[in-house]
Every structure is written in structure tokens, then in C-alpha cells.
Fold this sequence. Notes:
Chain A is an alpha/beta fold. Helix content of chain A is 45%, strand content 17%. In chain A, strand 1 and strand 2 form a beta hairpin. In chain A, helix 6 crosses helix 7. Chain A is globular. Chain B has 12 helices and 7 strands. Chain B has a 7-stranded mixed β-sheet, sandwiched between helices. In chain B, helix 3 runs parallel beside helix 4. Classes of the chains: A alpha/beta, B alpha/beta. At the A-B interface, helix 2, helix 3, helix 4, helix 5 and helix 6 of A face helix 3, helix 4, helix 5, helix 6 and helix 10 of B.
Amino acid sequence: MTERGRAGRWLELLSYGPVRTVFHTPSVLCSEVKVGKRTALGLAIVPDAEALMPRARHGEMGLEQAWALSAYLRSWLDEQRRLGLRSPVLAIVDTPGQAFGRLEEQLCISAACASAVDAYVAAHEAGHPLLTLVVGRAISGSFLAHGLQGDRILALDVDDVLMHAMSEQSIARITRRTVDEVREASSKVAPMSYSIAEAYRLGIVHKLIECGNAEQPTAVDVATVRTELDSALASIDDGYVPSLTGNPLREATLTVERRLREEWKASERWAHAG
Amino acid sequence: MSKQTWLKNASFTELTPRERLDALLGGSSRELLGPFARVSSPWLALQGLMAQTDDGVIVGTGVFAERPMVVAAIEPAFEGGSIGEVGGTKIATMLELAAESCRDGVPIAALLLIESGGVRLGEANLGLSAIARIQRAIVALRQLAPVVALVAGPTGCFGGMSLAVELCSQIVGTKHGRLGMNGPEVIEQEAGADEIDSTDRRQIWKLIGCEARLRDGFIDFLAEDTAESVATELQKAFECPLRSPQRIADAYQRLLQLREAQRGQDESNSARSYAKSNEQIDTEGQRL
């Protein structure tokens, strides 16, 4: 695979124009991608062995990546507003996670990642359809900052495409369990699974796309992905909102929503009576 | 001494989440979907872990500084204040209800008392998903009414919830609070003990404590450790005009600052000033 990593490769394959770096940040790439009849802004976080911050050289979402991604999205949104456009955004995801480091914490990587979340939500609120394509690892804070705000999250249905909050080793340490115990829990408990198929069953991922090899996709694989992106965008444009209703794995979410709304209504009546 | 007087004078950070709400909102607070509603995590028992009937998250309504608001407080004694499916959905739904009320012409603000390790690892992907929803809801409500976060400590705020807090209109902390993406133990695990010593509490507070965060503009107000002082700072926070929080809005400026600080110097400015602050901390007392 190229030095641009898997997300960069997919961005290249899907885009019709040149792939560019964002504000001189080789680890943050953008380009134009045709989705349906519209032109989407494609974005990817990719490895860069010479990145500014040593702990963000393998495709991590670090300070530089998050601020650059956010800054670029903001300037693109300003331009779209000026032009009266509401083009879609396509986030292509393969990141090992957020950058772990002392300097990252000192310089508040939380704010940097929050800034990227803020930009994605601003895009959504301004009416830009948000598409996410997971082609590799969708992990924790880096996925929150790049991908998880998508209106539709699509993922390649391949073994090494996965979603999680933390590495097995770190979970074991933080929760005072052995790695074997964590593995066993991941295999039994749907939200703890690393498998993207489980994320789909939970309703977090909206579509699984068949693909032979995510690392070296064939022309057929790319065409399939295009077709799926087209229909995902069409369904967003039609105003269709995915629902969790009827998903047995999400009973708790639905119960909380329903009962809180009931109690809210009752307490409003109480407040007005008082 | 009456209960209210006691609550006002006690160390705020030693109060439980319900006591904190009591101290700030007095009799106006009403819990919704409380522990007797018995909605708990369906995932913990599968792992031999004990669930709690409020999932460690208290939500409700109340009046603070004459403003009606939705409130949420996280119980750090349960699962480290982590966000799972139930607790996360409680917070997100309250924020969504407040936004709906604002759109209906009845402004309702939000007050979030955050003590959280971030995503609950035993509900990993549903925790992440719930936090993404909380984040979206904060940004939506923030444009209609103030959303104020309090990171009082001592647990502080980590992981995805630190992003959520940074998205709020205003952030109030105390010197016992801390805010970071990766907790010291996780950094030590992922990056090695040379990177950070997770047992060195003073070093950690110096690095990510709320005093440092205020100095660098990543939080907005710092309160003393009493309910009275916390209430005073919160009141100031709620009185701020509604606008996008500058701490995250100036992304391009932040990018340039980062490059300026890092480029051309093997020993960067920030690394050197960090080493200096290491020397200083030994002479300073730290409560925790």
C-alpha cells in the first residue's frame, strides 16, 4: 500500500480530482468525490512519518491533524455559504486512535478534537449531508472527531475493519482485568466487540459493504462502494432518518428516551400547575 | 446547622452528585428517571459486573440564577463516572428536550456536572455512540441557550466527555478538577512510563488541572472549593452572551500556534517550559 495509508488510498480511488494536503498538513488529505450527481468534499487522516508531533505519525488523530481538519472544514463551510451550496462531506476513516502523549495533553488535544466535532456538527446543521466510510480502524476519540457525526456510517465488511474505544491491553489495565478476560467479554457482549458487524447490529453502522480486500480493492470493490455511497446520499436527501425502533439490542436506549419524555411531560404539567 | 447551610459551607468537591445539585439548585431540583425507575445497563451483568438503577447518571430539571434548566450530574463512584448506553442517552435526551423547548419559545439552559472517565469500556461502542449524540446535542442547544459544564473534581473529565465539555458555551472548574483526553494511566500504558508517571499526582494536576486549563484558555472560570464560590462562577458563566466558544472556534490560529511552538526547535518551547514547571511543583502543596 502507498505511504498514504488505507484511508488515503481509498480517497484517491474515489476522487475525480487531485488529492491535496490541508493547510500544509501531509497527514490530512482532501479531494473532490462524485457521489450521485453531487460533488462531495472527501477527507482522510493518514500516516505521515515526518509529522510535526512524534506521537501522531502513524495515522493518529493528533493536535495538528485535529486543528487542521477543523480549520479546513470551517473555511470550506464559509466558502459553501458564500456560494449558496450545501455539498456533502465524506469522511474516510482508518485511524489507530487519538495521539497518546504528555505534550498532547498539555496542549489540550481534547479541545482540538472537540473543534473537529464542532465543525462536523456545524456542517450538519447548515444542511450538508455527512457520509462516513470506514475502511479500517474506527477507534475512540479519533472516530468521535472524524466520522462518528456522520448522518450515514458505511463500513467495509472485512475482518480487519473494526470499531472500538480502546486497545485490549489498555482496557485490561484500566478495568483491572486480564487481557484474556477482556477478550472473552468482547466476544460475548455486543458493544464490547471489535467486529464491525456487531457495530452494524447495534445500529451504529448503517450499512456494511462487501469487499474482497480493503487494503487492495479491485475495480469491482470500488464500484460497489460508489453505488452504496450514492444510495446513502439519496436517502439522506430524501430526509430519511435511520431509527433504532425494533432493534432488540437497543431496547435500553429506546426505554430511556420514551420514559424520560413521559416524565418530562408530566413534570411540565406539574410546573405549570404550580 | 440546617442542611442548606451545611451544603453551602462544605467542600464542594467532597459532595456526592446529588448533594452538589442540592447545594446549587436548592429545592428547585427534580430528578427524572431516578434510581426507582430502575433503568440500568443491560451489558454489565453479562460481564459479572454490578449494574446501578440510575446507571450513575442523575438528570433532571431545576432553577439556577432564576433560569430554568436541565441538569445532569455524573457519579464517579460508579464505574469511574463512565458513560454507557443508559447514562449517555439520559444526558443526550435531556439536552434534546431543552432544545425542543427553546424552539417552542420556552428557553431552557443546561448545567452539566461532569466527573467522568469517558466511554464506559464495558459498553465501548455504545458509549462512544452515546457521547457522539451528547456532543451533537450540546452544539445544537448551545445556539439557543447557555450550556455550562462544571468540572469540579477530583475525578475530572476524560476521553470523549472532555470533548463534550470543550463544546459547551462555558466551562467552570476548581483547582481539584482536571480535563484531558487520555488519562495518565492510559498514556503510560500506550506510550510508556517515560512519557508520564501516572502515580505522580502533582505532576498530573500541573499538566491537566483546571488551573493550567484556565491559564491556557481551555476553560473559562475557576471557583474555590465551596458551593458558594462554585455558584458565583456558574452564575457568571450563565450570564455570558451566546456565541461559539472561542477556545475551539479559532482552529486555524491554534494550528499556527502549534507549528510556531514546535518547529525549528528540538527541545520545543512547550517542552522546556514543561520541564521548568516540573521543578516548581515540588515546592507547592497539593491537596490530593
